[in-house]
């Protein structure tokens, strides 16, 4: 085997072994917070929950029920974003919950951010919990999150929700979604003072209200489709400390179940993640080919099968912590290359939508390029 062939064959092994050895350990699940069931009733009067809701009648009741179990004094504002179902009526039936009727979406705004902007003016507490309408907090979670925020002296803390896994496609793709997110935004770097990496999970963010105001939220990021990471970047650039972790106690109520639903979730923002850059799309595609495809090709080579085997073993080892955290069978690691193939396909689908003039499509709204 010539030098050039040996170098090419070595790339996948170097990539995966290098990933395992990186000091910030993007494959790790060490950054996490779980509910403290022993917390009891805690004083949460310093927090206002801000929930943007558009046609969420099927889940908003469970979300608000979860908040009722967190402690006393918690104030809740639900911004009804032009819903055509019973979202507002259900929300209004809960105690300490105020429903704000959202105004029509102005040009240049993303729907969720416009709803949050309208609700922000009603917040009077030192802290704000930004919560998606389909996120249920387990009892004791908010107390644990608040304690971590104070102990670590953070002004912005967020948790990535546990996505429901009820089908083969859910189990194949949703833990991998979190895994890839952590590779793109290593939590250890995002949680450090390193300014070039900032990330958040928009479903559950506890933030100082003052930090929100000084970061210019939400008007300054009004058309951002990846609003959580954009917000984290602006808060971090304003001089505040951010933190992001996982949690099995922050439960997503939204069912996916089939490949099409997951595709729609990923495709609405995948090309946005690449800055709408065709060059970046090609680079990522080449990286995926080397990382996931070339090791299998090498297994058929009499001279370089060992390099292919090393790459595959390192690849699967990097995925095992995520599977353990979500209490899944470790044999799902064998299907990681399949999930990679589907994700690169969904990214191309996102790019094709953009080239056809659709930047994103969500909640019966289309955002043009």
Automatic annotation (TrEMBL):
InterPro entries: Glyco_trans_2-like (IPR001173), Nucleotide-diphossugar_trans (IPR029044). The keyword Transferase applies. Coiled coil: none annotated. Residues 48-213 form the Glycosyltransferase 2-like domain. The chain crosses the membrane at residues 274-300, 307-326, 332-355. Keywords: Membrane, Transferase, Transmembrane, Transmembrane helix. CDD domains: CESA_like. Pfam families: Glycos_transf_2. GO terms for molecular function: transferase activity. This is Glycosyltransferase.
């Amino acid at each position: 085997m010539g030098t050039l062939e040996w170098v090419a064959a070595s790339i996948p092994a170097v990539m995966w072994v290098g990933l395992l050895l990186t000091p910030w350990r993007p494959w790790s699940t060490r950054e996490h917070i779980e509910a403290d069931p022993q917390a009891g009733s805690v004083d949460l009067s310093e927090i206002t929950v801000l929930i943007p809701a558009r046609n969420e009648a099927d889940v908003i009741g469970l979300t608000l029920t979860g908040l009722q179990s967190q402690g006393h004094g918690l104030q809740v504002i639900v911004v009804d974003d032009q819903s055509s179902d019973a979202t507002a009526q259900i929300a209004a039936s809960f105690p300490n919950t105020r429903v704000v009727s959202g105004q029509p979406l102005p040009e240049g705004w993303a729907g969720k951010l416009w709803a949050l902007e309208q609700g922000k003016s009603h917040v009077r507490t030192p802290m704000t919990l930004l919560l998606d309408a389909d996120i249920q907090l387990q009892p004791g979670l908010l107390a644990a999150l608040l304690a971590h925020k104070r102990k670590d002296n953070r002004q912005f803390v967020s948790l990535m929700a546990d996505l429901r896994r009820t089908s083969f496609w859910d189990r194949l793709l949703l833990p991998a979604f979190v895994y890839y997110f952590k590779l793109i935004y290593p939590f250890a770097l995002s949680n450090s003072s390193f300014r070039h990496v900032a990330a958040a999970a928009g479903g559950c963010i506890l933030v100082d209200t003052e930090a929100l105001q000084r970061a210019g939220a939400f008007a300054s990021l009004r058309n951002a489709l990846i609003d959580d990471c954009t917000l984290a970047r602006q808060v971090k650039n304003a001089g505040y400390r951010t933190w992001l972790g996982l949690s099995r106690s922050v439960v997503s109520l939204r069912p996916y179940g089939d490949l099409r639903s997951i595709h729609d979730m990923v495709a609405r923002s995948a090309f946005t993640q690449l800055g709408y850059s065709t060059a970046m799309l090609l680079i990522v595609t080449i990286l995926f080919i080397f990382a996931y495809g070339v090791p299998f090709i090498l297994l058929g080579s009499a001279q370089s099968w060992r390099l292919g085997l090393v790459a595959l073993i390192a690849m699967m080892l990097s995925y095992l912590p995520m599977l353990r955290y979500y209490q899944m069978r470790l044999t799902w690691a064998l299907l990681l290359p399949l999930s990679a193939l589907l994700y690169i396909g969904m990214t191309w689908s996102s790019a094709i939508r953009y080239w056809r003039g659709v930047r994103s499509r969500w909640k019966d709204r289309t955002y043009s390029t």
